[in-house]
Amino acid sequence: MTVSPAASAVPDPTNGLPERLAKHTVRYADHRSVNREELTPMFRQYVDVKDQYPHAILLYRVGDFFECFFQDAIAVARELELVLTSKEGGKEVGRVPMSGIPHHALDRYSAQLVEKGYAIAICDQVEDASEAQGLVRREVTRVLTPGTVIEDGMLNARRNNFLAAVVIAGSHWGLAYADISTGEFLTAQSSELDQLTQELMRLQPSEVLLPTNAPDLGGLLRPGETSEHLPDCLPTQFCYTLRSQTPFTIGEAKPRLMQQFKVRSLEGLGCEHLPLSIRAAGGLLEYLEDTQKETQIPLQFLRTYTLTDYLILDHQSRRNLEITQTVRDGTFHGSLLWALDETVTAMGSRTLRRWLLQPLLDIKGIQARQDTIQELVENGALREDLQRLLRQIYDLERLAGRAGSGTANARDLVALADSFEKLPDLASLVATARSPYLKALQTVPPLLEQLGENLHAHLVDSPPLYLTEGNLIRPGVEPQLDTMRQQSEDDVQWLKDLEQQERERTGIPTLKVSYNKTFGYYISISRAKAEQAPKDYIRKQTLTNEERYITPELKEREARMLTAQEDQKRLEYEIFLGLRSQVGEQADLIRTVAKAVAAADVLSALAEIAVYRGYCRPEMAVGREVTIVEGRHPVVERSLPAGFFVPNSTELGQEASGAVPDLVILTGPNASGKSCYLRQVGLIQLMAQVGSFVPAQAATLGVCDRIFTRVGAVDDLATGQSTFMVEMNETANILNHATPRSLVLLDEIGRGTATFDGLSIAWAVAEHLASEIRARTIFATHYHELNELASILTNVANYQVTVKELPDQIIFLHQVRPGGADRSYGIEAGRLAGLPGSVIQRARQVMSQIEKHSRIAIGLRKGSQVENASREKNGKSPATQPTEQLDIFGA
Ligand SMILES: Nc1ncnc2c1ncn2[C@@H]1O[C@H](COP(=O)(O)OP(=O)(O)OP(=O)(O)O)[C@@H](O)[C@H]1O
């Protein structure tokens, strides 16, 4: 990072030092507090590097370890539960805190630190320690931050790892985001700050770059940390990196983008006229240059999108519909994605997640997906063969990314070649397919076929993990390598011959020619026979049972052999690098194919589900109709034994017929299935717009612009808002943004306050939605007084979830039927829960008094009588001619 040493004041040297170390001779817990002149040369080199990376944990290579010192040692020991020790920092300095990790465990430990929101600078030895004159030269070769990791072990295969950058100007904002492991790079600009929050919540980026004027640049705010530099609209749950403003200025960002994509104008990228988008994207690119050092990240062409391209789902709705995790405990198990993810590749799984979070608005796009699913539903053999082949295709997107960035190993290239080999099979399998997503697989780019053949021709089937140890390249492809290999076989034979020859010369049949790292080749004779060793043997080492010798002839041959081996390994490595860059050059093409493969995977998974779980193809309509026949909740159905889920139908929002309501008031006892029904309707609509088949017997669904859900009441502890305030904020958001094309699912509005306030608000909200906005709405409530609304507004209907009452129990039928519940079963539920009999009896008395005398009840009764009379007289629909506000509190 181009960050100057921290500008903050030099800290107290012992601040944060663990007691155990403080008691000993360790005095310095922070590298900035030490007098550099007094440090040993190695420590001086360390602090010089550390100064350039004040906000990252510096992992400093010393032999076989990556060591941390001073404050980093303390943090790393704490976070990774490693032993904190100390090392002599200089005569006057004394010991400084130290902790370290073995170099071979770098990936594992780095992954843990990055996951905890730390940035890591890896400072490696850049010259051979044995050849160094004085101190070994070291350099930071890579900076790892949560949003910039590409290492396989640090990424979740089934989800994207996004790095985002935001630029805010007043209420306008620009957002750019990239997944550098797959190369996706997108940008958007808009004008409502709330939408920025919603976009970030959808993306769940691992790291967000924020240009600021903060003096302490490069700082990383870990999730949950707050800062005066963090604007209010940005949720604290993400990891933020504070950057300088300069790369985010239009003057720097624009040329950087043009250079990256080798274009003369940004017109082709679609963001020419979106300055905030350009600034965000340019700032993100600069950060990549800064952190990736020599590693080139092959990004795809920047794509500009607008928020209105997709069905809008705000964060609350996404959460309430439990799309990627459950509300209750935030687990994947129990979410919609869990229920639908039958994909067989990691690329498919990531694509399904993205599709579920961005349902489509375009009917043609939806139908293209539906057509593909239908073909795969109708042709079971095709579906099975397709999935069998897809299973054999590796993560092309990320493998291409690693090849392009020069971090792929030989196994990665073999995995790519194996995958390319399957593409022609895939193409011939779908040769006669008719649907769009299968047709996309019918042609295999010849370049990829050749590339796969070339990789297979060169690389052995199971290459080693390390690239510089040889054994990567097959025999017979590179004459020079074959000559070298022949030479080393001759050498091995020469050693065998030597052993035989020396056994005969000395008369010792147990004499052996062996090798170890310290002495190289030597002749070994047991101690008992040592006096038989010839005079020309030079003794090198004496062990308890063995004497070891060398001869000038053996050493001379050894020197030649070792050089030849090194040359051979180097040549293999060079051939490998050539292959890797050939793959890297095709990264874009590979990713295009990867996209097609991923989509086919998602659609065959959805087809498989449709067949086995009895889903139907919904008819997508241009109007506002929501007609679902015998719908089911896709997740609850899966968690119940087969046949236990009770299907329910839904009819909302038909244009012409007055018989179909826009708004349904849904009543029913606790735990009867109201929330489940509400979510079921939302999920069916969402799945339909993703292009999936839906859990129903039949469905006709108009395309929705937004789905809003307000389900249950949960305190938002993160922002310190009360249950009621959260509920009111969410309700306000719905009333301000819903349109006649929206689907609104409300559960228990007005519960978190006094009953009268709650009922009044619930009434007013329902009335506004039905008569002003006319959004398709299901309004689940315990206030059965709201049933009166249906007698006032023609586009409102009452439904209830039915129960069967037995003398000592209620049986939940889970059936949604027309009509309103005339009472709630709260007291009944209390009785079943074991409240004392006297309390239950008293509650019943109180309730009957309230029902008789409550001014709300009287007001409602009176109001509806008056309203009915006036409606009959005028013959007008109150939905088209809003009534005056009903005085539910009586005169
Ligand atoms: N259609 C159905 N078929 C079978 N079981 C169902 C159905 N709907 C709901 N259930 C079961 O009933 C349980 C309670 O449902 P839900 O939470 O939707 O009730 P509710 O009416 O919203 O309750 P409350 O008013 O207390 O919030 C669910 O966990 C589910 O197991």
Q: What does this 3D model show about the protein?
A:
The protein has 891 residues and is an alpha/beta fold. Among the domains are: 19-144, MutS, DNA mismatch repair protein, domain I; 158-309, Nucleotidyltransferase, domain 5 (2-Layer Sandwich); 619-874, P-loop containing nucleotide triphosphate hydrolases (Rossmann fold), CATH 3.40.50. Residues 636, 644-646, 648, 668, 670-676, 814 line the site of adenosine-5'-triphosphate.
Task: Briefly say what this structure is.
This protein has 891 residues and is of the alpha/beta class. Helices cover 41% and strands 18% of the residues. Among the domains are: 19-144, 3-Layer(aba) Sandwich (MutS, DNA mismatch repair protein, domain I); 158-309, 2-Layer Sandwich (Nucleotidyltransferase, domain 5), CATH 3.30.420; 619-874, Rossmann fold.
Q: Compute the CA-based radius of gyration.
A: 35 Å
Q: What would you call the structural class?
A: alpha/beta
The CATH topology of the domain at 619-874 turns out to be Rossmann fold
Mean pLDDT figure: 86
The CATH architecture classification of the domain at 619-874 is: 3-Layer(aba) Sandwich
At the first level of CATH, the class of the domain at 619-874 is Alpha Beta
What is the percentage of strand-forming residues? 15-25%
Could you say which overall geometry the principal axes of the C-alpha atoms support? elongated
Largest beta-sheet characterization: 7 strands, mixed
Low-confidence stretches: 1-10, 715-719, 871-891
Query: Helical percent range?
Result: 40-55%
The DSSP helix count reads: 26
**N-to-C span:** 71 Å
CATH superfamily of the domain at 619-874: P-loop containing nucleotide triphosphate hydrolases
Binding site for ATP: 668-675
Family: Belongs to the DNA mismatch repair MutS family.
InterPro entries: DNA_mismatch_repair_MutS, DNA_mismatch_repair_MutS-lik_N, DNA_mismatch_repair_MutS/MSH, DNA_mismatch_repair_MutS_C, DNA_mismatch_repair_MutS_clamp, DNA_mismatch_repair_MutS_core, DNA_mismatch_repair_MutS_N, DNA_mismatch_repair_MutS_sf
Protein name: DNA mismatch repair protein MutS
